[in-house]
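Why does residue order matter? Because the sequence determines the fold. Keep that principle in mind as you read this record.
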Amino acid sequence: MDIVFNCPNCDQELAVDQTGAGSQIECPACGENISIPSTGKVTTGSLPVVPVGPVPAASSINTSAAAKVELHLKVPVHDKPAESLIGKPKPPLEVVQKGAGKKLRIRTIRRASCIESGHDKFDEKVSEFLHEVGETNLVGVHIINYEQFDVGIQKIMTDYGVLVVYRG
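Structure:
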């Protein structure tokens, strides 16, 4: 025989064996300590089973377990906001020190834009920018190939560059 009662704090319906009457338990829904009443709705075995929906009497489905549902489901009502069940872990200290709070940024450096007075300064420009960013903020460096139309010679030229992904 079970004693069926509601938690006085969160109104969750609970069922406890009759031998537990008068003892203290922790409510599984809200976690508060409550005492089991000595009186309540006493049932045999489990809560009453009631058929769901109109099912023809001659059907074998009418007598099956699928046609019945236990009516002891209640949604707890809370006065305070519900706490998150899955907490987001905090980042490790090493990640925070390396700039985890900074936004990801991208910089594209094309070789054609690094030619000054006929001298190719691509390596110097890339090295200077990488030194500016710093190794701890560097996420990745990727090689790119691109085509551009050269107006002077009226041809499409293929060139290269780098795409730098960094935090900053």
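The two ends are 67 Å apart (CA to CA).
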